[in-house]
Specification:
Length: 506
């Protein structure tokens, strides 16, 4: 909220006269004084006739503008992600940016405090969506959809402390792929992991690893270690911080903040520091404590089957069974996974980035049933690509290596070396537009030819068509390559075909 001292004198006088009108008014209006001050500040800022207050122009905390150069990179990344989703048969879906508040509550565990609640509008209590998964589950239940393979690209909002350098924002995009429906075990789950591998490999940002675990194994491990069932989700939330904190610090949080017995925390520590492949799955089958728990055995059997499918997909070497992986969200019920880029020696001038996970997901078989009046379940599994963190890595590397980005897709520029040729340029460019060719011209009646050619070089436009008095008389057009500066003469009626041929060959 703006400082009270920044209110213009007239605004303060009007506000004080309302508040101090009588003792009764002062009491009854005290509750609304905060909103009155805020409204007065807003009015003073928007009213040009009042004195200007000190006003900082900035984006809200945890958000940012994207320049044309950044948008080119972002659209390229998003295009690659969507292409992969479509290759695997997904349909597009969109949902509102806000949902009924009651639909979002108690779905995210301790992270529920990060939900942005909105002011009551028309009798509905609303909140900005926290992710794309819960709205998808609501959509399935509301429309009684039993099977669907969908992708969704959209913004979500989280009221957390942002770390811009690490790609952590309050407003950001999520790229989700989900498979809903009753199918044979682990086939959809394996495909989700295959998709993650395809996308991360295609980005060519370095080697990566996908950690895999199962919430049933976690819950069973908590049970055999002596964690009270009422503390399962709270301890799971602490465990989820192991990618940012050491085991010593996580243990300290479990014991001091969540009142877990020290010996119980130590038993958990014996397990969560293990990781490996299918051989670790076999070892845990033989564990005297874990093998007595039904949930653990179910999870291990599914993981063993999952590794068989991952081997057939040729990606098993990218997957690590990691007992420390928790995924703190409450709605996960089975297999969970999270992808991280492996730390590699920095190239010249490149700073080290602790990006955390760049993709994650898992199975959530009970979420749709929470929204269905009869509790009908629709098993689901999905993944989300952390496009903001990926974009931060790409952006930093472009800065280090001085890579330039072309911000437009203009293919042809219409130019003239002579005065009073605006009408001919307009007729010519309309012909190019109508043929589907991306074209530009300068919005000047009599531009200099050198200025027009410099514009093409600066914007990376590959071709220039030049029309002048001589060309008009002879019914021809000059076509110039900006890079090579070579010019050819073409009959006016053949211009479109020649441009299309050159563009298809390039």
């Amino acid at each position: 909220m703006p400082q009270l001292g920044l209110l213009p004198r007239k605004a303060w006088a009007a506000l004080l006269s309302q508040i101090l009108w009588s003792p009764y008014t002062a009491c009854t209006r005290a509750v609304s004084s905060h909103s009155q001050v805020a409204e007065a500040v807003l009015t003073s800022q928007l009213n040009p006739n009042q004195e200007k207050s000190d006003f900082i122009i900035k984006t809200p905390k945890g958000t940012r503008d994207l320049s044309p150069q950044q948008m080119v990179v972002r659209e390229k990344i998003l295009g690659m992600v969507v292409s992969c989703f479509k290759r695997h048969g997904a349909k597009g879906l969109d949902t509102p940016a806000f949902e009924l508040k009651e639909l979002l509550t108690e779905k995210y565990g301790e992270d529920s405090v990060l939900i942005y609640d909105l002011k009551d509008q028309g009798g509905e209590l609303l909140s900005l969506r926290y992710d794309l998964t819960v709205p998808f589950a609501r959509y399935l239940a509301m429309n009684k959809v039993k099977k669907m393979k969908r992708y969704h690209i959209g913004k979500v909002w989280r009221r957390e402390s942002p770390t811009i350098a690490q790609g952590r924002y309050r407003e950001f995009y999520q790229c989700d792929f989900d498979i809903a429906g009753q199918f044979d075990p682990m086939i959809p789950d394996a495909e989700c992991l295959k998709i993650m591998c395809e996308i991360l490999s295609g980005l060519q940002l370095g080697d990566f690893l996908i950690k895999v675990n199962d919430r049933r194994i976690l819950d069973g491990m908590f049970a055999v270690c002596g964690v009270p069932e009422s503390k399962f989700r709270a301890i799971c939330s602490s465990l989820d911080k192991l990618d940012k904190m050491s085991w010593k610090d996580v243990r300290h949080e479990m014991v001091t903040k969540k009142s877990l017995a020290p010996e119980v925390a130590d038993r958990i520590g014996d397990y969560v520091q293990r990781h490996g492949g299918v051989s670790l799955v076999e070892q845990l089958f033989q564990d005297s404590r874990l093998s007595q728990n039904k949930q653990v055995l179910e999870g291990l059997r599914d993981l063993k089957l999952l590794f068989e499918y991952l081997t057939l997909f040729g990606i098993a070497e990218k997957i690590s069974f990691d007992l420390s992986l928790a995924r703190g969200l409450d709605y996960y019920t089975g297999v969970i996974y999270e992808a991280v880029f492996l730390q590699t020696p920095n190239q010249a001038g490149e700073e080290s980035l602790r990006m955390g996970s760049v993709a994650a997901g898992g199975r959530y078989d009970g979420l749709v049933g929470m929204f269905d009046p009869k509790g009908h379940r629709v098993p689901c599994v999905g993944l989300s690509i952390g496009v903001e963190r990926i974009f931060s890595i790409v952006e930093q590397r472009m800065k280090v290596f001085g890579e330039k980005v072309r911000t437009t897709e203009t293919q042809v520029f219409v130019a003239t070396p002579q005065k009073n040729f605006l009408q001919e340029r307009l007729k010519l460019i309309a012909e190019l537009w109508d043929a589907g060719i991306k074209a530009e011209l300068l919005y000047k009646n009599n531009p200099k030819l050198l200025t027009q050619l410099h514009y093409c070089e600066n914007m990376g436009i590959p071709l220039v068509v030049i029309i002048g008095e001589q060309e008009m008389k002879e019914g021809i057009i000059k076509l110039r390559s900006v890079a090579s500066k070579e010019e050819v003469t073409i009959k006016r009626e053949h211009l479109v075909a020649e441009i299309q041929k050159r563009l298809s060959d390039s």
